[in-house]
């Protein structure tokens, strides 16, 4: 089966609309259209993501009905947990509470550091980058949505790791989220990082 057929099948199984499906997996609608037409192939990280989702679709696993939010997002979260390039975290406004091995490896941390409670967003963010995305946090609290967010983390050896966060809000107050974190440096070619616009 070609990538276009896989993407089209998954889009239809998650509601049918390109814009909604693109929002779910962290790309724009034009990218979904190019994937479906065959004019562009997904990068390695998204190939693995799509294959996990497609395998789940073939098994016809029912989405969970116990948690709030979009069923497609919940199915996506389950699929992302086993992706090689993609980390999964549970976090509050300040700290990473749980994480898979892919996320820890991505940033050079170990499970002991995670379990000690030392992984907070300020430590993970380079000094020259914003430590707080207040507009995104406000959207999460007000709407219960987790809009895709691009930012940079800092590896323990000092190098910058560009990432894309896509997730779901489990609780608004106190804020608790589950997010997939795609390492954009593993993409070939890397996804462009938006240039900040002057206020």
Structure characterization notes:
By secondary structure, the chain is of the alpha+beta class. The chain folds into two domains: 3-79, Orthogonal Bundle (434 Repressor (Amino-terminal Domain)); 85-186, Beta-Lactamase (2-Layer Sandwich). Helix content is 40%, strand content 18%. Strands 2-1-5-4-3 form a five-stranded antiparallel β-sheet. A hairpin with a 5-residue loop joins strand 3 and strand 4 (160-171).
Cα end-to-end separation: 46 Å
> What is the beta-strand fraction?
15-25%
- Number of separate helices: 9
What fold name goes in the CATH topology slot of the largest domain? Beta-Lactamase
> Radius of gyration, Cα only, in angstroms?
17 Å
Helix content: 40-55%
- Oligomer designation: single chain
Largest sheet: spatial strand order: 2-1-5-4-3
Gross CATH architecture of the largest domain: 2-Layer Sandwich
Question: Mean pLDDT across all residues, rounded?
Answer: 76
CATH superfamily of the largest domain: PAS domain
Largest sheet: 5 strands, antiparallel
Estimate the global geometry from the Cα principal axes. globular
CATH first level of the largest domain: which class?
Alpha Beta
Q: Name the structural class.
A: alpha+beta
Compute the number of structural domains.
2
Task: Pick out the low-confidence regions.
Answer: 61-70, 188-197
